[in-house]
Amino acid sequence: MAVESPILPLEHSAKKPALWPFFVFGIVLLGLFWLATKWMIGGSVGNTDPEEAARSAQRVKNLEELRAEDAAKLNSYEWVDRAKGEVRIPIDVAKSLIVTRLRESEPRPAYPVQAAPAPTANDAAPVQSPVTPDANPATPAAPADDAQPAPATP
């Protein structure tokens, strides 16, 4: 006689939770966040102070004047200091002069390069092999096969 199991198959016993309430809750939270930020900022951008609008217009005008002045300085010839013989030249001309000068010259380091002094026999440290735990510290370690002797001094 076969005994039937009272446990239902897994597909019938497990019910999937509905996800739409979480989605709606997230949308509501985003809306509340947007409303809170609008309230903290003080409404729309359109209701700014008229004096601030005038100052903003003045800043834009000053920036345009500054850029025009810079463009005029970068693209014109002018004496900087006649006594010292300093002149201002257009930036494009200055770039081409520098590139021509660099192409004609031999490359060299930007700072003085000094060779390191050659080591002397006194400077050379003795070569020691690594110490193993079973080695006797009273006996000196044998030099390694790849160790090179120190150069002799004249």
Kindly describe this structure:
- The protein is mainly alpha-helical and 154 residues long.
- It is 42% helix and 5% strand.
- The protein contains 4 helices and 2 strands; from the N terminus they run αααββα.
- Strands 1-2 form a two-stranded antiparallel ribbon.
- It starts with 9 loop residues before the first helix and ends in a 50-residue tail after the last helix.
- The mean pLDDT is 79.
Please describe the topology of this protein.
Blueprint: H1 10-13, H2 20-41, H3 50-74, E1 78-81, E2 86-88, H4 91-104
Antiparallel strand pairs: 1-2
Average of the residue pLDDT scores: 79
What profile does the largest beta sheet have?
Answer: 2 strands, antiparallel
Portion in strands: under 5%
Look at the helices and sheets and give the structural class.
mainly alpha
Bin the helical content: 40-55%
How many strand units? 2
Low-confidence segments:
none
Describe the strand arrangement of the main beta sheet, using strand numbers. Answer: 1-2
